[in-house]
Amino acid sequence: MTMLDKRWVDIGALDDIPRQGARLVRTQKGCVAVFRTAADEVYALDDSCPHKGGPLSAGLVHGAAVTCPLHNWVISLETGAALGADEGRVQTYPVRVADGRLLLDAGALAGVGDRELQDTCHG
Amino acid sequence: MTARKLVVIGNGMAPGRALERLIEAAPGAYDVTIFNAEPRVNYDRIMLSPVLSGEKSFDEIVIHGDGWYVDNGITLYKGHKVVGIDRAARTVTSEHGVVAPYDKLIVATGSVPIVIPVPGHQLAGVLTYRDLDDVQAMLLAAKSGGRAVVIGGGLLGLEAAAGLAEQGMAVTVLHLMPTLMERQLDPAAGHLLQKAVEARGIDVITKANTKAILGTDPALGPARVRGVLLEDGTEIEASLVIMAVGIRPNAALAKAAGLTVNRGIVVDAAMRTSDPDIFALGECAEAEGQVFGLVAPLYEMANVVAAQLAGDATAAFKASATATKLKVTGINLFSAGDFADAKDREEIVLRDAARGVYRRLVLKDGTLIGVVMYGDTSDGAWFFDLLKSGAEIAEMRETLIFGPAFAGGATQDPLAAVAALPDAAEICGCNGVCKGKINVAIDTLGLTSLDDVRAHTKASASCGSCTGLVEQLLKLKLGDGYNAAAVSPMCPCTDLGHDDVRRLIVAKELKSIPALMQALEWKTSCGCAKCRPALNYYMIATWPGVYADDSQSRFINERVHANIQKDGTYSVVPRMWGGMTSAKELRAIADVVDKFNIPAVKCTGGQRIDMLGVKKEDLPAVWADLNAAGMVSGAAYAKGLRTVKTCVGTDWCRFGTQDSTGLGIKLEKAMWGSWTPAKVKLAVSGCPRNCAEATCKDIGVICVDSGYDIHFAGAAGLDIKGTEVLGHVDTEAEAIEIICALTQLYREQGRYLERIYKWAKRVGLQVIRTQVVDDSERRRALYDRFVFSQQFAQVDPWAERVGGKDAHEFRPMADLAQREAAE
CA-to-CA distance for B254 and B277, rounded, in angstroms? Predict the structure, then answer.
């Protein structure tokens, strides 16, 4: 996939997300959690822990990882993979910052057609 | 240059130290020969008591093993008693006929125990307490059980008594004077000591004058001890008698050689005897007209001898004040200086009967000249330093007795007290090692462990009673680089434990999480889900009104003030003071349930109503409606005050003794909003039937006719545990003050997520009782701090969020689904 294939959509300002926090973006495929780290890196992941579907957006962000609020699984924001002894992975999506705006790749969202739709969006 | 010949008579601690220092200062300058009357290497005589009690083995108290003598080219004759010094020929001769020539001679023949020449003192089974042979004989005697009589209730006698009791013997201590250890303790402390000794099952008879030691009938075989007869006719049966009534300098050899001898071998400030080539040191030496028995001045003598031998003619001995500690596990006493009563002296006394604490300071001309401490001796080093330095104490006179924690400011932390000590403060009395020296050694040699410090400075290497202080210095110096085995780190981001972090927050005035992580060298850039909530709590508890809460360091429940459920929805619990509600509140709750289609409503275990299944985005609107009916957050999610459960008490109940509902409401109104290390649940029952189940709560009150029994440290969760009694008070106001003070103490000492019962177990129930019940001043101070911090904490978080705070938490930042649908 090249940059040309991406369809960047403006989802808000970087400052809409607190540092070491997350906000939700509702999509037709379910909720995507957009994270902002202490170092202003941004990441987008499905808002659903691979363990029991906990809302990762409500977790505690530390470094480039988030701890799920339900059972303390730690998920890498970079890869979506569970860290430590746990096994599992959530879908990640390209997101970037341009002029203080957050751009999410809607093309990637469309590309995960076989992803099971979340019956509830925790937002 | 060929090495000169140095001969040492005696191989105790003082000459051992002198040789060590000499080898450091002038390696190879002397060819050393030692004669030791004991058939062994140099060991730590101070530690014989732990060997007797079984806490240590001989190997553990050896100072210089055989290898040390080999490595340093020292000839050691073990079991060679020197029988003559020929000053003209400059030789010494041992009883086995070894003749050794010397250029310089050190006489360190120590002391001999005093044996009271009463009839029977030569019987088998009568021992003194001086060296390892004595200890081995006592251990052997203890094997056959029976009763031991220890004559002498001084330092050595009591240590021997405790050791023999530890070995299973029945023990009686006979002491000539009215109180124990009268040379080191005043009568009040002597009395406390006697109680503690007796509590170990040891009989103590004071004013006991031994008349005779009784032996078995010689007709029945070799006579041995069978008892002790006192002047007043009392007869005490004994299979072992220990004489521990004192020592006298062993100066016979020196006297025979024509050296000047008074009580001991007379030496000048350079430690030279009347023969300039002969030094004397240790217990056999008499300097400034005094003889010495404690190790600190003896080591000082050793330093002087070593320096003189190494060529420093200026080195001079000066007797300084010495401090005494008793080495019996579980008995803490400390004394230093002069504490006799006199007209020109003032005294300050602190007693705490419940804790068994006694402190007495003797002042003269605005300086401290004597200290006696019993029970809590942790401030000993600080007082001793004040005493030795002769510092002016007028300015801190008011709080002096409370120790450095008060004199230096607000902290009660022992580490801060150590930090406050000047560099010259003596840490290790046995080895004369000051704080500055330890710090320099840690810095320059890169020391990181207690063993390192012991190896390089000798601090805490003798009696070991300053081990805690040395560890605290390591901690202060190394911060998270010091990893004492006992401290488990709060999380993988640091090597520091919770207590260290709390202490350093205060000591370094760390007022934000990033500042803390920088100062304490956190190993991760911004912590983890374990440490961040803990740090956020510690900051809030330490700096009320100053620290700005970091919501990103809170778990979701405390961030959005509701309880997350398994499906990502939330439950909402409004506060119902003391469990009381009204038609108006119930109606508002019913309306909210209908309006927001809340799927479940339930009563909680803490007498509240729980609305379950609320969508996150609905939370502010739900709260707005509940606020409108006068309800605030019930904090059912908080590491803080949760609920105060009550029964109906005298309002309705025919058994009620007090207004339990009213007290519950008052407590909840006083305490709501407070953050604590873990959740806090209270209950107030109106009578001992205890319908509010107060005796399994963190804090519970049982009302009785005469007032209020306050309980604490219960649990009914992962662990089930009945409460402990904190105390009884007569009035509601006292109950509230004590409970708030208890909560504040817990807020200040508890580790994050540590419930009250675990905290109480860790720090000790009695310690807590003492601080919040017995010590009314401390209770008041705790209460005041609680009230102060509450003014910043009692803000309804729901109303804040209804007003727009943290709005980002409750709604998505974008809705692409709708956007696409619109397109």
Answer: 13
